[in-house]
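Hello again, I could really use a second opinion on something today. I've been staring at a protein lately and its backbone has me curious. Can you walk me through what the C-alpha cells say about the fold? Take your time with it, there's no hurry, and the full record follows here:
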Amino acid sequence: MDGILLIDKPAGPTSHDVVARVRRASGERRIGHTGTLDPRATGLLPLVVGRATRLASLLTGREKAYEATVRFGWCTDTDDADGQVVGPATDARPAAPDLADALQAFRGTFDQTPPRHSAKKLQGRRAYALARQDRPVDVQPVTVTVSRVEVLGRTADTATLAVTASSGFYVRALARDLGLALGCGGHLEALRRLRSGTFHVDDALGLDEAERLGPAVAARLIPPARALDDLASVELTDSGLKRVVHGNPIGPEHLAGRWVPPPSGAAPVRLLAADGRLVALARSRGGALHPAVVLGYD
C-alpha cells in the first residue's frame, strides 16, 4: 500500500486514533496523517500510507479550507467548546456590521498566537501537556495568511464562517480573537475541514467504511504522483531511474524529452518512471536535479 487515503473524520476520535484504527483494519503499519484535527472537529484528514509517508511534510504545509461556527458570549481556556469558561459571560450579540468590520483584521497576512492547548512544542513538550498541568505556556505568535473569511450564516449568538488559510493557522485562535475584538468573547463551537491542498472532503471515505474495507481499502489510495500533481514533472530514462533510486543527481541526459531547469529555490520537481509512478522529488540546483525525497522503485 503506497499512496494517500482521504478520510472524513467523525467527531470524537483524535487524528492519532484514526491512524491507529486504519492501521489495524488494513494491516499496513506505515500510516501517518498530514495535519491534526481536534477530536471534536470533523472532515478531511488525509492519511499517508506506505512510501507516501515520506511526503507528509509537503502535504501538511498546504492551504486548508474550513467551515467553522463561532459562539459569542464567553471565552474558554482551550478556545473551543470543550474548555472551561474564562472570564465573565456576556449577553452581547455582535451586530452584522460590527462582525463584518471585525473580520477585516483577519484577512491577509498577520501574526496569530496559537491556543495554549495546542500541539505546538515548547522546550520539547506539547503546549497542551503544559497547560493541563497549569504550568506557564509561552506560545509565540506565528505568521499566517488567510485568503478567505466570510460569514455563511448567523443565529442570535453564533456565526458560521468559511475560512481558507495557510498551514499553521488555528481556527480556534480566530474564534478567540474575533470574540475579543468584538468585546463579547468567543470560542469555536464546531469545525469541519473541507479541503487540504488539492484534496476535498467530497472524495473522502468515512472512517467506519475504511475499517469495513480492511486491506481492500488499498483500492481507494491516491497514487503519490497524483497527490502532488500541481508540481512540475519529468520522466526518467532507464539510466536516470538507476541514478535517482540511489539518491544521485541527474541532468538533461537522464530525462526523456526536453527539460528547462527551473531557478534554484523553486518548488520540487516530480521525477516519474516511464509507467508514471513517482520515484522521487528533486530540487533544481546548478543545472541538475538533486533528489530530496526518494520513494524508490521496484
Notes: The chain is about 20% helix and 35% strand.
